[in-house]
Amino acid sequence: MILSKSCEYAIRAAVYIGYKTTRGEKTGIPEIADAVGSPMHFTGKILQTLSRKKVISSSKGPNGGFFIEDPTSLYLVDIIRAVDGNDLFSSCVMGLKNCSDSKPCPMHSQIKPIRTQLLIEFSKKSIHELIQDYEQNKYFLK
To answer: Distance from first CA to last CA of the chain, Å, rounded?
Structure first.
């Protein structure tokens, strides 16, 4: 497990919200929580974080709910950074504060290429692409 549980739910929620957005719909916390299999209160906190960091949008009122402005310009890396921060791509695997290219820990040279590759892959995969796959496979609905 390289992503936190919050981040996993955030990604699934973003895909579901994006899916609804592409159909011209907005969706609320209870529906999202049910779709991604996350507790409603936990889902609400995750969505609040994503909204505050402008990863997703929301509107209030009778036709309100969550939506994504442009799923083609939202990438997995955006969600990961919003929820888990940049540590996956930058922190020392041993937790050393002074680990760097000039002062590496014993694992630095082995882990750095993996972190770099993760950043590249998460930066290439858009929510739009995940929505397309979701439409075919419905991979996280109950």
So the answer is: 22
Contact present, 94 and 107 (Cβ < 8 Å) = yes
Q: Taking a C-beta distance cutoff of 8 angstroms, is the pair 42, 30 a contact?
A: no
This prediction's pTM: 0.91
Specify the amino acid at residue 140.
Answer: F
Q: Tell me: the pLDDT tens digits for 83-115?
A: 999 999 989 989 998 999 999 999 999 999 999
Contact 127/68 with Cβ under 8 angstroms? yes
Do residues 12 and 18 make contact, with C-beta atoms less than 8 angstroms apart? no
How would you write the chain as a 3-class SS string? CCCCHHHHHHHHHHHHHHHHHHCCCCECHHHHHHHHCCCHHHHHHHHHHHHHCCCCEEECCCCCEEECCCHHHCEHHHHHHHHHCCHHHHCCCCCCCCCCCCCCCCCHHHHHHHHHHHHHHHHHCEHHHHHHHHHHHCCCCC
